[in-house]
Structure formats: structure tokens, C-alpha cells
Specification:
alpha/beta; UDP-n-acetylglucosamine1-carboxyvinyl-transferase, Chain; 2 domains; 4-stranded mixed β-sheet; 14 helices; 24 strands
Length: 429
């Protein structure tokens, strides 16, 4: 199994190109099931999760072609996918495919909307909390679907097609909003989604669906209105840049010191995280090519943060911030409000010498002058990259094990960091 070896202590200097957002690319690929015509997606990141979803869609009969780089494309340019779901040959998404990634469960929405039936295994993915699919099932039932759970599968039927309805989520849910949005595009009548997630990736998916002929308004606000249409056509769409990758590299620079241009980043997608980094002592400059992050000389200041739905501080940057605060001059507090059991990185960060105390959903981090390299184990996607950030700043050698989590969400991580002066390499086997 691959590992990543890091020798810490180097500052980061240079340019890191930001990839397309995984959290938009996956639902956008799934949205290709809604149309018989070809959906072309540009700037799709090359990730294990994307490859896994291609296998899942292929199982349904979707033809996916990945276009090569065009002359003049940047070395890190994302791939272009041509997704053609002209003939859906199977409406079952089996356990052996879905169990590896929770987002793959979302295929239930377009299959049900277009084919009026679906049988989808309950999902897998990161081992964070329980992640129940209850809210997704509730949304589909509101739209008129009949759902049963049998043998680990959700079996959904809508013999007469889905019908527009009022969907009021009891709490903000990104997964539920994606599912409701996709299902409602082909439902008869008008659907209103209240307490909808406002994340930029929701807006990106809605923009793409509208290009395909959907009638969606209000994406990016807590109330989305969808006027159902009979069918969707093909379209071309560029995946927005990854705000979590942007924030991750920004925190790495704040941790090690240095000066890095995050090329292609969009500051409005992660303003809350940039504000926290500024408070921590980093210098953030917005320019025509993205965001420049620097920290020279000054130490890291402690911060107090609670995760929150967009536009609040993202839960997907919580672990990275904790790594940064491990070297702050003073005590920081981080409260996790989105997912339960999302502090699995704490015991691994402690192996570097970090001083972290947990009390329920709040972590208190007492900054230390120096971290020391250690062998550590990745537990989930975001936790694993927090260990990389800690390793970049730690004295000596760090070995990060179980890095398949990293490959699910970060495109060419070690290449991007080593290009900026980090001593980091992948060790195979």
C-alpha cells in the first residue's frame, strides 16, 4: 500500500494550480444520467472518487470518454469528460460499487426521475458519523416515490413519474439538496426546496442543469424553486475550482511559512476560511490569477472557530485548521457542528506532539513551539491531509500511511507541494 514520506521544515514558495472541485464534479457527473444527450464537463479532477464514479455510471450503461490534453493546456489541467447516458441498461447500483463512496448513492435521483425506478445500495465512503440517508429518502417520498429498504438496498419506484412538491428539510443537507434538485428537474409541476444548502457546489450543479434545459431558480439561497420539464438536453460546463483544496494549501503555507500563488482559486468560495487565516497571521492577497498566501517571520496566532454550512467555516477544513493551530502561540478552540465523530485526526496529530483536548464537539488546542515527525495513519479524506500539513512543518521525517484517502480528494498532492519546495514523496508498495 502506498505511503507518503515527508521531511519537514521547508517553507513553500511558488505556484499551485487549483483543480476542479470534487464536490461539484461528482454530482455533475451523476446529473448526466438525466439526459439522453451528451453532457461535456471540463476541469474534472483526476481523482480515485471520479474514477470510481465512472465505473458506477458505466454499470448503468453510461458511455464516458475522457478527452486528452489540448495543446497549450496547463500541465495540471483537469480532464474533459463526455458523458452519454443515451441508453440506461440497468437501474441497479450494486453494493460492491456504491459501498466505496457515499456520493454514488445520489444516482437514485436521476434514475428515479428518468426511468421511474431504481435499486441502490446504501452508501459507503468516509467513516464519519452515521451519515443517514433519511433526508434523501424523505425528499424522494415527497416527490411521490415509493421507497422500501430491503437487504441493504433502497428500492424506489415512481410508476407515473415524480410530481412536484414542497420539500422542507429539517436541517441543512448538501446531499439532500443535490438529490432533491436532480429529481425535481424531471418531475411534473413545481417543486420548492426550503432550508436548502447554499454551498457553491449546489449553485454549480444548478447552473449546469439550467444549461441542460432545467428551470431552477434560487440556487445559493435557502429556497430553491424547480419547475419540472419533460426532458433535458446536452450541454457543456466547466467545474468550478475546489475551495477545499484552496483552503488546504493556504493552511499549508500558513503552517510552514513562505509565499504561494494559488492559481485559479476564487476567494468568494471560501471567504470565511480566508478571514480565519488572516486572523491567524497569514497575508492573503486577491489578484487576477487567484489568491496569494504568505506568512513571513510572524508566528501563528490562535483562533476560535465553529464549523457551519456555507458561507460559514467549512467542516472539510476543520482538520487542516487544527494542524495549523497545533503550532499557534496560545490556545485555540474548534467546535464541529456538522458531523459527529469528526475528530479522528486528533490522536494522530498528538503523535507529532500536538496538545489537543476534546470536550464533546469542541477541541482545545494548546500550541507548541515545534512538532516532531512521526509515523501516522490516515483515517479519512480531510484528516489525512491534516497529517501532511503537520508533517510539512514538523522537525524530521513523517510517514503517512493509508494514503488512498488522499487520492480520493487531492489531485497530484505530492507533485504540487514538491514543486513549491516541500520534501515529499510517494513510496509505493
Amino acid at each position: 500500500m502506498d505511503r507518503i514520506r515527508i521531511v519537514g521544515g521547508n517553507q513553500l514558495h511558488g505556484t499551485i494550480p487549483i483543480s476542479g472541485a470534487k464536490n461539484a464534479a461528482l454530482p455533475l457527473m451523476i446529473a448526466g444520467l438525466l439526459s439522453e444527450e451528451t453532457l461535456i464537463l471540463d476541469n474534472v479532477p483526476r481523482l480515485a472518487d471520479v474514477a470510481q464514479l465512472q465505473r458506477i455510471l458505466g454499470n448503468h450503461g453510461v458511455d464516458i470518454m475522457s478527452a486528452g490534453k489540448r495543446p497549450g493546456d496547463h500541465e495540471y489541467q483537469g480532464q474533459t469528460l463526455h458523458i452519454s447516458a443515451k441508453n440506461i441498461i440497468d437501474t441497479t447500483a450494486p453494493y460492491e460499487l456504491v459501498s466505496k463512496m457515499r456520493a454514488s448513492f445520489w444516482v437514485i435521483a436521476p434514475l428515479l426521475a428518468r426511468m421511474h425506478e431504481a435499486k441502490v445500495s446504501l452508501p459507503g465512503g468516509c467513516a464519519i458519523g452515521t451519515r443517514p440517508v433519511d433526508l434523501l429518502i424523505m425528499a424522494l417520498e415527497k416527490l411521490g416515490a415509493e421507497l422500501t429498504i430491503d437487504g441493504g438496498y433502497v428500492i424506489a419506484k415512481a410508476p407515473g413519474g415524480l410530481k412536484g412538491a414542497a420539500i422542507d428539510f429539517p436541517k441543512v443537507t448538501v446531499s439532500g439538496t443535490h438529490v432533491a434538485l436532480m429529481a425535481a428537474t424531471l418531475a411534473k409541476g413545481i417543486t420548492t426546496i426550503t432550508n436548502a444548502a447554499c454551498e457553491p457546489e449546489i449553485v454549480d450543479v444548478a447552473d449546469c442543469l439550467n444549461k441542460m434545459g432545467a428551470r431552477i431558480s434560487g440556487a445559493g439561497t435557502p429556497r430553491i424553486v424547480v419547475e419540472g420539464v419533460a426532458k433535458l438536453h446536452g450541454a457543456r460546463h466547466t467545474v468550478l475550482p475546489d475551495r477545499i483544496e484552496t483552503g488546504t494549501y493556504a493552511m499549508a503555507v500558513a503552517m510552514t511559512g513562505g509565499d504561494v500563488q494559488l492559481s485559479g482559486a476564487r476567494p468568494e468560495l471560501l471567504q470565511s476560511a480566508l478571514d480565519v487565516l488572516t486572523e491567524a497571521g497569514a497575508t492573503i492577497t486577491v489578484n487576477n490569477d487567484g489568491i496569494r498566501v504568505a506568512r513571513n517571520g510572524a508566528g501563528i496566532s490562535p483562533v476560535n472557530v465553529s464549523t457551519a454550512p456555507f458561507p460559514g467555516f467549512p467542516t472539510d477544513l476543520q482538520a487542516q485548521l487544527m494542524a495549523l493551530m497545533a503550532c499557534a502561540k496560545g490556545s485555540s478552540h474548534i467546535t464541529e457542528t456538522i458531523f459527529e465523530n469528526r475528530f479522528m485526526h486528533v490522536q494522530e496529530l498528538a503523535r507529532f506532539g500536538a496538545r489537543i483536548h476534546l470536550d464533546g464537539e469542541t477541541a482545545t488546542i494548546d500550541g507548541v513551539a515545534k512538532l516532531r515527525g512521526a509515523p501516522v495513519m490516515a483515517t479519512d479524506l480531510r484528516a489525512s491531509v491534516s497529517l501532511v500539513i503537520a508533517g510539512l512543518a514538523a522537525e524530521g521525517e513523517t510517514m503517512v500511511n493509508r494514503i488512498y484517502h488522499l487520492d480520493r480528494g487531492f489531485e497530484r498532492l505530492e507533485e504540487k507541494l514538491s514543486a513549491c519546495g516541500a520534501t515529499i514523496e510517494r513510496i509505493s508498495g
